[in-house]
Structure formats: structure tokens, C-alpha cells
Design a protein that fits this description.
The complex is a heterodimer of chains A (383) and B (282). Chain A has 383 residues and is α/β, with parallel strands linked by helices. In chain A, 38% of the residues lie in helices and 21% in strands. Chain A folds into two domains: 3-195, 3-Layer(aba) Sandwich (Rossmann fold), CATH 3.40.50; 271-382, 3-Layer(aba) Sandwich (Rossmann fold), CATH 3.40.50.920. The N and C termini of chain A lie far apart (57 Å). In chain B, strands 2-1-3-4-6-5-8-7 form an eight-stranded mixed beta sheet, with helices on both faces. The mean pLDDT of chain B is 96. Classes of the chains: A alpha/beta (383), B alpha/beta (282). At the A-B interface, helix 3, helix 4 and strand 10 of A face strand 2, helix 3, helix 5 and helix 10 of B.
Chain lengths: 383, 282
Amino acid sequence: MSKDDVLCGEFFINGDTACAEGAISAGCRFFAGYPITPATEVAERMSERLPQIGGVFIQMEDEIASMNAVLGASWAGVKAMTATSGPGFSLMMENIGLGVMLETPCVVANIQRAGPSTGLPTLVAQGDMMQARWGSHGHYEIIALVPDSPQEMFDLTVLAFNLSEQYRVPVLLMSDEAVGHMSEKVVIPQVNSKELVNRQRPKVAPDKYLPYDSRKGLVPPMAVAGEGYRFHVTGLTHDDRGYPVMTAEAQDKLIRRLVDKIRLNVKDITKYEEVNVDDAEVVVVSYGISARIARYAVQQAREEGIKAGLLRLITAWPFADDRIRELASAIKAFIVPEINYGQMVREVERCAAGKAKVNLLPHMGGGVHLPETILEAIREEAR
Amino acid sequence: MTKMVTIEANPLDCYLRVDRIPHIWCASCGIGPATGCFLRAIDRAGLNPDKVSVVSGIGCSGRVAGYIKLDSFHTTHGRALPFATGLKLANPELTAVVFSGDGDIAAIGGNHLIHSARRNIDMTVICINNFNYGMTGGQMGPTTPLDARSTTSPYGNYEYPFNLPYLVAASGATYVARWTVLHLRELEKSIAEALIKPGFSFIEVLSPCPTVYGRLNKLPSGLDEMRSYQERSVIRDGADPRDVELSLNGPIVVGKFIDIERLTLWDCYQQVLDRASKPKKR
């Protein structure tokens, strides 16, 4: 990767464009996608930029094909991504599961719009948060990041690639229409190759290589096509050789590892930002565009002398279980504004476990919360 | 007393995951012979096997990837073509082969088939057509002949089938052939040609499915279906794909129908790369 590939400097760009530039900075050289509002700008930027730097852009016939092309490209050894929104995200689900099963590093950006179905194509929502967690069939663990600004669209896309390469799992960038279409200053730094993670490659000879060898860690080294390893991978339940094994024992061993490679590393993966939480009595838990409004409401509450704080999720999945548990014993109430009728609030309730009150502030989508709505809820809980 | 039997190594063992044999296919199934043709064709085409990647979808034919000792991917139902598209575009040095069945490629994956042919991506598709969904027990599909019986067309199939060579030729494929597993020499030669040919190559391979399709359609043994191929097939290289549609008991036109030149997707993309200027420095 040449240094000239990355556009360094300060730019006034929208979140979707910042996502594309983040991918390029992370070393992504393959994009397959299908036009969909409000994610199309990611594809448009990639269609302009990737040919400039010798990468591949391809517009596929649908989102199912896009997701599969991304998996194929990753198995050819190239960092790859796609970007979509609700309806396309639904179509990708089966093959996100294939990505999980084959342990394929890749990034999927979902610039959320309001649903179900076609919903409000041009308007904001955060209604796919649980789909991100559980949308593909079977039990698995996933990583999902929630940017709240164009700058974070850049930063978290880089992080998404790093996590996907480290843990060999598809990483979801769960943005929303407001952040995707919002233009702000974005600083693109020089690429520091030490900060980029690349999947572990096998160090053994091809005849000794086992595609899912878990003896030296939960994330096995990954061979890529064309290097003589002559490996086999399958979406069927498989053993260390990658061969199908149709038994409960094989299923137990495989699923435990797929889940544990994330679950046992939640401390390293989970990220959140805290504002005025240390002495807070009321903590607003929010993410994405909603967190920007919550931040303002918390500021206003502080000016009124209310001990309010903000916990802004940066990873939605894994969820910040430990921190919410800790806070639950120290505060009066959590307030959870989100643009759906209650999704991440379930996680807050689960971790609060009755020790603190949990108050959902839902918005059905198509707009964002008013700061006053959140402020009023803070006042109410602080009383 | 148990008698020890030494089985001589098969000349194709170097291309097989022998530790996975025996395979799951029924006796008299045609997928095995077609796989043999493909493996021999790799040598015949003079390819470096390390650079050959095989992608399969789901179904009996989808299991081919699992028995071949090459880089091989057993993906989801219908999606072998887009998966192989990603592989090939990300590393154009690879020879991308999709080996799968008619239900996988022409029904659930039909959209990917026409678009892959349209793009003329350099790829070889070997499509086993056994006229039904074998693995799930013999349901009708988009290649089942009119009036044929299946477990979901118990009174006879009332849908017209695809004429696959016509479909892919019309969509832009540059190499199109059809053989049956009775025509092993022709099939092997055809696959070898297709592997070397730049662009989208499609080979339909008619194959007996004695366990379900054959049993439901008065061809109860594999041999019956092979005999029917022998009686009904006519070799017509260069036949117009419009004229090669199949029916329950009508003639089976086999041969190489299309072998034309057209720039591949990769060739066209290279022209775009030349046009794209480097980003302006700030």
C-alpha cells in the first residue's frame, strides 16, 4: 500500500465519504455493493477512489451477491467491504452468517434508515441494532460499532477492519442516515502501518496446515487462495481440517470457539465514551446520532445543577455489560434515547438488573429526539 | 475370516481429499464421473493446480468442492458465482471454477448466472443438471422437463423449463457447451477448453439421478438413464442455442454451441484503471 493512496489532511465531507476514506486508510482494496439510500455515497466514493489506487470496485446485481463477493475477495487475501441500508442489510444476513462460519475478515456498513420494509428510505433510524446482533440464523457472536460523527465514520471504519482481521469475523459499522449524510470536518492522518492489523497467516507447510486449528488460540491463522495450501472451507459444521462433521460434538466445539473468541475478549473490544459520569445520578446511555443530542441535553442539565452524565456506546456489540452493571449500583436511573421502540434499552435493563431505573425514550424514526425531550426526562429522574 | 483387500491408488488421488472418501453420492449418480472429467481437464489444460479455486453452492453437486484437493469453498445456496466473482477480481491470477447443480445455479442463483455471463467475468461454470433437487429428495426445479414427475409435481410438472445454453448465451457467455455423463471424453476436452478460454464459460452436464428423478420418471436405474442419453443424444457442435431445448423424452442436443471472443470484465476494468487519475495532493 503506497502512502499516496491515502488523502491526508482536513476535509469537509459527509459521513459516508469518510467511511470510504477510512476503508482506504485501513487497507481495503475491494468494494462490492448495490445502490441504496442512504448508503450509496459510500459506493460512489469507492467507485471513484479504488480505481485510482489499483483496487477493485464492483457494483453487483444485489446485496446478496455483494456480500458474497466481499467474502470471496477476503479469501483471495484482500481487505474488502460493502455498504448498505436496512433492506440490503436484510438480504445480506444469510451470508454474514457464512462470513462468521468461514471466519472471514470483512466490514459491512449499515447506514440505518427507518423500517420495517421500505420504510422511510431517506430518513434516519436506529432500528437494526438487534438485527445486527442476531440477524443471521444460528448462534454466533458479532462485533458492531456505532459512529456518531463523520470523523468517527473514518476512525471506526479503520477500527472495524482491524477488529475483523484480528478476530476473523465480519465487523458491522452500524451508522445511521443522519451521521452518514452529515458533513463535518474530518481529519485524515498519515497511515501508520503499525496501527493496521492484518490477519495471521499460516507459518506451517501446506501439508501440515489445518484451516481451523485452534490449538494455539481461538483465532486460527488464515491461508488465502492461490498460495498452495489447497484448503477446504464450508458453511457446514466442520472440524479443524475444515471438513464437515455432522455431530453434536463437532457443533459444540465449533460454536463455543466462534463465540468465545469474541466473548473472552470483550474487555479488549468493548469501547464507550463517558461524559460527567463519575458523580452522576442520572446517566443517559445512547449512541450514533442520538448520542449527539443526548450530549447537549446532559450539558444543559449540568448547567441547571443536575448531576447528569452520558455513556456513549462506541461498540454496540459486544455491549458494555460490566460498566452498566457497575453504574447501576451507583446511580438512580438510566435514560436510553434511541430511534426505535426499544432495542439497546433491553441490554441496559438486563445489566441494570433492577438496581437502577431504566427509562426508554423511543423515537419511531424519520427524525431525531428534541434535546428538550431528553432534558425533561433527566429532570424527571433527578427529582 | 476377513480378507484384506489392497485398493490401488486412483490416478486422480493427488486431486482428491482421499480422507473424505467414500463420498455421499448415490450409486450411478453422474456427479462423480463429471468431477473426474474436471480433474483430468486441469492437467489437460496445463494449469497449475495451486492456482485453481473451486467454489460450490449447496446440493449434491455442491459437495464437489469438499472432495477436491484444491483451494475449495462450499458456500451458501445459489451464491457460488458471486463468491467466485470476489475471488477472481481480488486475485486475477486464480482460475475460478464454479461446480454446482442446476437448482443452485439456475433457480436460487439464477440472477447471479445471467449477470456473471453479462459481465463476461473469466470463470468456468460446470453445471450438473439432474433435472431436480436431489439432496432434498427430488423436487421439481427450473430445469425439470414439462410433465416430468417429482415429489412436488406429483401429477407432472406444469412449468416450462429453462434452456440453459440459450439463457447464458443470450446473457453474454463466450463459451457454452452441453454434454451428458455418457460423453466423458467430450466433456473432459470441453472443460479443458473452457478452463483456458478467457471469459465466462458455461458447461451444462446432464447427469442421472436414479434415486429420485429417475425412479419417478420410469428410469429406475442409473443405467436406464444412461441408455436414454445414448438413444436420445445428438452431437451438434455449433448448434443455435435456441434449438437445444430439452424435453421429457425428446432429443438431447449436445456439443459446443458457442465459442466466441469478447473482452472480459478484467480487460474492461484495466481500461478504467488507465482512465482513473491519481488523487490530487493537498
